[in-house]
Write a structure and sequence with these properties.
2 copies of one chain form a homodimer. Chain A is α+β, with helices and mostly antiparallel strands. Helices cover about 30% and strands about 25% of the residues of chain A. Chain A has 8 helices and 14 strands. The longest helix of chain A has 18 residues. The first copy, chain A, is globular.
Amino acid sequence: MNRILLDHGEGGAATARLVHDVFLAAFGGDGIPEDATVLDEGIDGRIALTTDSFVVRPAFFPGGDIGKLAVCGTVNDLAVMGAVPRWLTAGFILEEGLDLDDLARIVASMATTARDAGVRVVAGDTKVVARGEADGVFINTSGVGVVPPGRRLSSGSCRPGDRVLVSGPVGDHGTAVMVAREGFGIEGDLRSDSQPLADLASALLAAAPGIRCMRDPTRGGLATTLFEIAQASGMTLTVRERDIPVRRPVQAACDLLGLGPLFVACEGRLIAVVSADQADAAFDAMKAHRRGQDGAIVGIVGDAPTSSGGRLLLQTCAGGLRPLTALEGAQLPRIC
Amino acid sequence: MNRILLDHGEGGAATARLVHDVFLAAFGGDGIPEDATVLDEGIDGRIALTTDSFVVRPAFFPGGDIGKLAVCGTVNDLAVMGAVPRWLTAGFILEEGLDLDDLARIVASMATTARDAGVRVVAGDTKVVARGEADGVFINTSGVGVVPPGRRLSSGSCRPGDRVLVSGPVGDHGTAVMVAREGFGIEGDLRSDSQPLADLASALLAAAPGIRCMRDPTRGGLATTLFEIAQASGMTLTVRERDIPVRRPVQAACDLLGLGPLFVACEGRLIAVVSADQADAAFDAMKAHRRGQDGAIVGIVGDAPTSSGGRLLLQTCAGGLRPLTALEGAQLPRIC
């Protein structure tokens, strides 16, 4: 079996062969080594920038792998800001001894997902550390998107009466990775929801240009992300537990593990806060899209609380009203 | 002593406090959590993109630290392509147990170096892995620069008669890190040359707009980078050993360690290949700049070799002519 050696990270001949055989083979490129990539495509709008490192364990799990995740995560961070994702960079930190076939599978998955998302991977870097100094493969992706003129989304812009939409069931990714890693004797159809959301975000914005903000509820889950939106806006967000879609096997796994599904990461869902008059249009566009057909309207923005700052309230199935805040404590390490 | 906990990577309240207390304190920012940063500044030219991950050990060494290196490395990759470096992203992978004061020092060093380089750190990400799953701190920086209209540098564009310039002594960074890590009983004034080069690159391009290409000779050193330029151009590059500046303690350390200084990484030097008629102007501008005052003209581009592909020749101090190729084998792991 071919394995990663320290040589592959030295910047010399072995690095050049790895770049040629694995990275250029998957991502394309002219192979001329330059220190940066200069892009000839024009920019009509403002630049959006984001970065994310991925350390998920195991690297392969039902519904995805670290490569798919690394592309989706960064593409989605751009898309929810109203940007059209255009270019990605990919930085790899590899542990000596990593199976080269596994690396090639991961890189092929990145390339496939990038095509699905309509982005190009245009720059990369590889470092290798000795056995025991990292765990398999860590990937950073950074992304550049273009926000069309006139479009401004912001977590701080929610107004009373706005509706809160989520594009599908929550908690699938985190529980799928957790169970793939630890087993726990849990069976059931647990799969990561990992998918690129640029086309869904674009469809929503076309149908409802008055969208206040979008976010993708990754680490910390739906509740943490909604709490951040409430805080940024200084508003009270109220969500109805009954309306939040949670798949049965996800709920069952969460019950067994003592997790709240509202705090478990998604990697293929988006939250949208939409003005009341455009909420139905946004919801219809969501339901009409293959990546949003299980979406729901889950909440509403109320008036600002009397004290300063915003808050998140959960109207429980039992009829109570419970305040939620950001995730506290290490619940699910290395799920992305 | 305060240390990094797994909680700090969970995306919840602990992550928010770390971001506020360490990252926003150093880099600035409004603190509103969004998934990407949208930049209001205009773009006049083409976008240049690059990425680099840094895993240097030890994290602190004479002349720099992993934070300074992470900014310089990415800024320099943009600058040598003729881009004005503008924005950086920073992705941190932290090992549980990392000293929070060390992290704060590293981040402060990044912020200082970013100011020196004229760039802003505008987006970030933090992941935490358990003890033993990484080694202290790994940093990815990705960078966006803007290439002014009409400027096109390319490693493939060298022509016969072009001169090869290097902006200062080579091999300082790699030997300084190696000796800081391993000791080897070596004494002497070994310091990393790590520094941002955007202003030097800009001064060179102003004085000599006909610069064919620039590169920064990091991993693999001067020889590997010149070999890549020779290959991309299909030309023969001949460099004179006598003219290549190597500081005495660097040469002494290399002799003891059995390393060739031409293959040892720099982190604050650039190579420029300049048309013959502008070589003197470029050289004068280099010598007049505080980051290039120890620079030299070290070689010349000859005709293409008869066989296909380019080659690099070293005219040795002894008078011989020796072909050099890219670095083979793991010489200096984790020096950047």
